[in-house]
Structures are given as C-alpha cells and as structure tokens.
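Q: What does the assembled structure look like for these inputs?
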Amino acid sequence: MPELPEVEVVRRGLESRIARASIGGITVREPRLRWPVRADLPSLMRDETIESVGRRGKYLLLRCKTGTLIVHLGMSGQFRLLSAADAPRRHDHVDIVTSAGVLRFTDPRRFGALLWHDARAGDLTLHPLFAKLGVEPLSPAFDGKILYRASRGRSLSIKQMLLSGREVVGVGNIYASESLFRAGISPRARAGSLSRARYEALAVAIRETLTDAIARGGSSLRDFVGSDGEQGHFQLDCQVYGRAGEPCRSCTTPIVSIRQHQRSTFFCPACQRR
DNA sequence: AGCTGGTCCTGATGGC
DNA sequence: TGCCATCAGGACCAGC
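A:
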C-alpha cells in the first residue's frame, strides 16, 4: 500500500499529535512480521518520550532519547493513533500505549517491520537498511543530474531503476508508472539510454507526482488508511495506473498494461517514448 | 487460481 | 581464474 506519499501522510498525522508523548507500555500480540519484533521491545521503550516523528524513504522513524523505532508498513500496514483503545482485532499486531493515545500497528500481510535502533549503535544513516538508499525526492538535493549520473552504463529499465530505491527513494509501483507518464518516458526504456534532459524532466515529474499525492492525503489503493483512519483519494486521480484499456487522458490512446520484473506497469504507448 | 501497494536475499551473468 | 557490479527471481503473507 504505502509508497512515500502515504508514509508521509501518516508521519504528518502523527507528528503533531504524538511528539513529546511518553510511552506507558507496549503490547506485542504477533511478533512475526518481516523480521521478528524483538521480545524486549516493551522494556526498551517503556517510559521513553517520543521526541519527533521522522521519515526516510518509506520508513517511519519514532525518535526517542535512547534510540529510534524504525517502522515500515510493508504492503498492507497501518499505523493509527486511537484516542481510546478499542478491542484489538485480527491483524492488530502491536499497540504502543502513549500519553497521547494508543498507536496501533495493523498489517494483514505482515510484510511490515518494527525495529529498534539503539542510539549508542551510532548514526541511523549507517544502519544497514539505510546505508544504500538514494536521495529523498522532495529534498533540494534531488535533481536530474543524480539520476543521469547513476544511470550511465546501466541496462535495466528506467522503471526498475526507480523502484530499486538506490538512486531516489520512495517511488513505488504506482508512482513509478505515474511519474514516467508525466515525464513522457517509456517504462521500458533502458536507464542508460536516456538523455540528461529527459532525466531533468523525470526528476521534476517525480517531485510533482509525489507532492500532489501528499496534498491529496495519500494515494491509497483500495485500503490506504492514514494515521486517523481517513482514506486517501489518489486512485481517483491516476493517469495510467490501473487504467489498462481506458483512454489516455491526454491523447485518448488506450492505456497499456505490461509486466516488468513481476510487477504491473501501465503506460500510454503514444505519449511515452523511449 | 491469480492478482495485489515492498524489499531483502540468493544466485546467475557478464565485464575487466 | 577471480573479483566485482549488475540483474532476475524467489521469498515472505492475507484478502479479494
């Protein structure tokens, strides 16, 4: 579910409400997530104060004094702040009880993760999960030059390069298709074959696509839910994703669906060129 | 039965 | 031959 815009929407929703909240206790009902939730997480985080809520790529960061809780929503995760703890239901795996309410982690597919990073272990940017991540697409440091340079000599498709997260983070399967449409680039183009100018256009397209989605409250696939349980609306605004056979909104040519690297890709064969 | 938002890991491939 | 980077595929799950 969650690509960068969804995670950012959750982050913003939580930040204003739980920054400086104290943690009373943690209940782990199901530790078998992508990686097992460590058994001592409750004792590690009890009495901690959440200093801020950050984000790196699609990872949420609950920063506390002695460390940081790294949260990933996987494909189907939700992280909601409940004012009153209603009875946990199926797939409600973890509750973090805070002075601002109960933070509940829900994830049917269990591709998500909750990892504690001890501050004494050093800078978070050195964490194995973060060490090889690309630049943040909404930061000033992100531009076409970064993509262009990284792409030289690479034979993989431009769509796969975006999905890899190695050059730029946060672009998932939906926004990869949407960004390439906005930039007029075929998802099948070899990364190494695109010009500097086209990467400049792509960088702009990525930033605009993600910014628009955030402004709409997160995209949301059928079931995206923000930190307050609100649904996003992006699916209504997709230009190509999920629109196979439907007319391109720009030129009316039917949108085409293909498989790339085991993932679905949507594009307009007329508007998007190699 | 086959599809679905993410991403780590393993093993194959190819260049030097 | 060996090392390295790159790339493809499988794996993890439940719900529809």
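Residues 219-223, 232-236 of chain A have pLDDT under 50 and may be disordered.
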